[in-house]
Hints:
Strand content: 5-15%
Amino acid sequence: AEKEYTSFKALQTALLVFQDSIKEEIKNIPNEEYQKLQLQEIEDLITVVLFTYVERLQDENLPISSDPDYNRYMENLDFNNPEFLRNGYTMYYLSWREKCNSDNGIISYLDMLSVAEHKITNTEIRERVFKEILNSYFSEGDEAELESIYAKGKTILKEDSVGMKWLAEKYSIFKTLKPGTKAIDCEWSDPKGNVSRLSDLQGKVIYLDVWATWCGPCCEEIPYLEKLVEHFKGNSNIEFVSVSVDSRQKDWLAKLEKDKPVWKQFLYKNFCELYNINGIPRFIMIDKEGKIISVNAPRPSDPEIIKYISDHI
C-alpha cells in the first residue's frame, strides 16, 4: 500500500494478488474463528486503501475525478452496507462525488441528500445518512442553501418529532450565526478558574480557536497559531483566543502547562453545541462590535491566513 502506483487499476491488481497470497497463508491457522477475523481485517484494510485512492490523486495535484477506474469503483460500492456508514465511508463518498461535480469546489448538501436518496434503499441506513448530511450542513454549509435544506429536512423528518425539534433548533442557530449577526455569548473559565464571558473581549477583532487536547488535527495547528500570534504581536486590534471543549479539566491544564501558550485560554465543554460545530479544529472570527465575520475562518496553517486577518482588522 505504501508503494507508488501509476493508476488505481495497478493498485487494485496488486492488492488483490496480495489478498490471494494472504488467504493461502491464513489457511494454516488452526483456529477457524481466528482465520475469519484475519480475513476480515485484510479485507477492511484493502477497502481503506482503495477507497482513499483519491488522496493519492490530490497529493499529485491531479483532479479527483481523473481516474475512471477509481470513479467506477466508487460508484459501484453498495452504500446499504452499515459498515460503510459506521466507518465514515458514506459521507466520504458523498463529499467526493459532490466535489467531482462541482465547478467551484463548493459542496451542495441538497445534492448530497438527493444522491443518498437515490443510492441507498435501506430505509434505516438512509435516514441515518440523511441526518448526518443535515448535521454536516448546519455545521459547515453555505447560507444560500438554508431554506431549501430546511424544507427538505422537514420532509425527511416529518414522522420523527424528536428529529423535527432538532432540525428547528439547528435552523434557528444557523440563522443567528450568519456574518453580521451578533456572536452568541457564553460563560467560560480561564486556567485559574476565573469566570468571564466572550462578550468581555468586545472591542477587538477576535480570532477564536475551538480545540481539545484529544484532537490530533487541533494540536497540529498549535505551532502555526504560535507563529500567527507572534506575527501580530503588539497589534492592539486583534485578540487571539483558544477555547477548549475538553470534558476533563486536568487534561486541558496539563496541555497548557506543557505548551505554555501566550494567548488567552478558556474552557467551555459545550461550546460546539452553542455554535453548531460538528468537528474541530474550528476557527471563528468576530469583529470589534461583537458581530460574526465567519464561523469557519481559515486555519492558522492556511497560507493565506495572515492576509485574511489583516483584511479584517
